[in-house]
């Protein structure tokens, strides 16, 4: 807190040094009538005093931020401070251009494959050179990534990709409605049937399906818990899907079945935090 004491004598502005004493529940300013210093000495004293108070203020503000995050996690999340500072072990992924946000374990990192693809795409968009005519894939690369490619993905550093959370945003007709498939159970069954039919030898089993309603945006978030297994893997998934303005948003968190009990709480926290922001 920067403190100032200004005294006016006619048209002359003169500074007096001040000191602070703390009483129960408040601060009291003591302003001496005379110090015996010259005006130059008083100016130097005041300058050093206020610079010191300003520096202390910056330290206090940083402490206040940490204090608020620890005392009231929800307040920090409402202010989106977890984009910069982890709150209770979670950081926020905020994608204003894509129109969604969610929180994820703070120690997780961005998927490096996605980052490399994003850099490559940006380089292609900036390039003024025409692609070689014999490059059959150049047109596809310039069109960007597939609609089924995640916009973001996070996982533990050094992992093999079996444990991660990702978000896909796909274009759908403006009149597309998830509710047309039925209630949460019917929607969940439709999803697992699609997964089972997508690849030979893969079986998906629905465990639970619920809906979370956003009355403000008149939007439903369908949360699906299911298992996916084949001869080579067994995974446990929690997905959240919703549709708005011609876009289908799908968050998917997956983990090997062997560690599901360890990450179940984390996955539910991530899924429940997913929101469309557009």
From TrEMBL:
Domain PsbP C-terminal: 89-276
Region listing for Disordered, in residue ranges: 129-157
UniProt KW Chloroplast keyword: no
Pfam families given in the database record: PsbP
Signal peptide annotation: none
Transmembrane segments: 49-71
MF-aspect GO terms: calcium ion binding
Chain coiled-coil ranges: none
Keywords of this entry: Membrane, Transmembrane, Transmembrane helix
GO cellular component, one term: photosystem II oxygen evolving complex
Any one GO biological process: photosynthesis
Gene3D superfamilies registered for this protein in UniProt: Mog1/PsbP, alpha/beta/alpha sandwich
Highest taxon, organism lineage: Eukaryota
InterPro entries noted in UniProt: Mog1/PsbP_a/b/a-sand (IPR016123), PsbP_C (IPR002683)
NCBIfam families: PSII_PsbP
Protein name: PsbP C-terminal domain-containing protein
Protein species of origin: Papaver somniferum (Opium poppy)
Lineage: Eukaryota, Viridiplantae, Streptophyta, Embryophyta, Tracheophyta
């Amino acid at each position: 807190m920067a403190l100032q004491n200004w005294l006016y004598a006619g048209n002359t502005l003169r500074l007096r040094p001040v000191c602070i004493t703390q009483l129960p529940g408040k601060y009291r300013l003591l302003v001496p009538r005379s110090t015996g210093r010259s005006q130059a000495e008083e100016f130097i004293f005041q300058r050093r005093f206020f610079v010191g108070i300003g520096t202390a203020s910056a330290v206090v503000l940083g402490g206040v931020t940490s204090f608020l995050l620890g005392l009231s996690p929800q307040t920090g999340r409402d202010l989106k401070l977890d984009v910069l500072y982890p709150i209770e072990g979670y950081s926020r992924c905020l994608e204003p251009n894509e129109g969604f946000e969610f929180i994820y374990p703070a120690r997780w990192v961005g998927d490096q494959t996605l980052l490399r693809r994003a850099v490559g795409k940006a380089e292609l968009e900036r390039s003024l050179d025409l692609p070689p005519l014999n490059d059959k894939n150049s047109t596809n690369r310039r069109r960007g990534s597939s609609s089924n490619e995640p916009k973001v993905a996070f996982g533990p550093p050094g992992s093999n990709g079996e444990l991660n959370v990702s978000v896909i945003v796909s274009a759908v007709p403006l009149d597309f409605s998830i509710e047309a498939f039925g209630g949460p159970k019917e929607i969940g069954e439709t999803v697992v049937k699609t997964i089972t039919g997508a690849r030979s030898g893969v079986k998906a089993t629905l465990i639970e399906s619920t809906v979370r309603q956003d009355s403000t945006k008149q939007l439903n978030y369908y949360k699906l818990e299911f298992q996916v297994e084949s001869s080579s893997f067994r995974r446990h998934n929690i997905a959240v899907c919703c549709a708005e303005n011609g876009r289908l948003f799908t968050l998917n968190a997956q983990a090997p079945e062997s560690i599901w009990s360890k990450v179940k709480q984390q996955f539910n926290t991530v899924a429940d935090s997913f929101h469309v922001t557009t």
